[in-house]
Specification:
Blueprint lengths: L13 H18 L4 H5 L6 H8 L7 H10 L5 H14 L14 H12 L2 E6 L10 H11 L5 H14 L10 E7 H5 L5 H17 L3 E6 L13 E5 L8 E5 L4 E4 L2 H17 L6 H14 L3
Parallel strand pairs: 1-2, 2-3
Antiparallel strand pairs: 1-4, 4-5, 5-6
Length: 298
Amino acid sequence: MSGAELRDGPGDGPTAVRILVGAQLRRLREQQGLTKAEAADPIRASESKITRMELGRVGFKERDILDLLTLYGVHDEQERATLLARAREANASVWWHSYSDVTPNWFQRYLGLEATATLIRTYEVQFVPGLLQTEEYARAVVRLGHGSAREDEVARRVRLRMERQQVLTRPDPPMLWAVVDEAALRRPVGGPEVMRDQLEALIGIVTKMPNVKLQVVPLAAGGHAAAGGAFSILRFPQPELADLVYIEQLTSALYLDKREDVDCYFEAVNRLFIEAAPLKDTFQILDRIIRDLDEAPH
């Protein structure tokens, strides 16, 4: 493989491509023994811009790419054209850009990574995972988090979540392995009817969608490995992209890709798979929760 060659992979999204292009630019710079400051000067940029480019956190200007390739000694026209084409792909617009008014930048990054992932492991303690929510349940969750939002804004946030779920039904869907605390399934978000419909939808999903696995951590389990809170671990088809842990907060999110951090969360999720009820019991657990909901006084 030549210095500027990038491999194509199935399901590459602009976010992943941006990270791959940035990583390739970093490798080329390091091969020339140049510092970020030395790379920044020819393109009239700051050292921090080179950092953001190499981390895939900003789009690419074609002029900058060409100038950097010249600086890095990449003169073969085919190699230059290949990387430039990937940079254009990285800059391409995606469907969630039309929701930028209700989607912060830190979450747009996650949407791009989620769309590229081949395996999503997630643990939820308070709500049904977003990829598995019904429309009415999602509306109730959005209202909890955005109590002062106008109705049209709520509707757009819900529509974003519904469109996001299409990743699970595309021709090459990722595997979603979700572990959910039983308390989240018993909390009647949106009221008993909304919750009942949500639980029935989960039964339909686990019985009809082979790429979705759902385990429940029973209330009787007491403390468990992931008592710290909800998180997701993403795995990608591109070997250049390391596994990543995503932890959402109220006004921001953490993206952890250091090996020691990821290993810690892998250990936690693997223990959760053991501590949770077996997959074969999920249907019975959901059915029992529905019966308990129906019998509860309203």
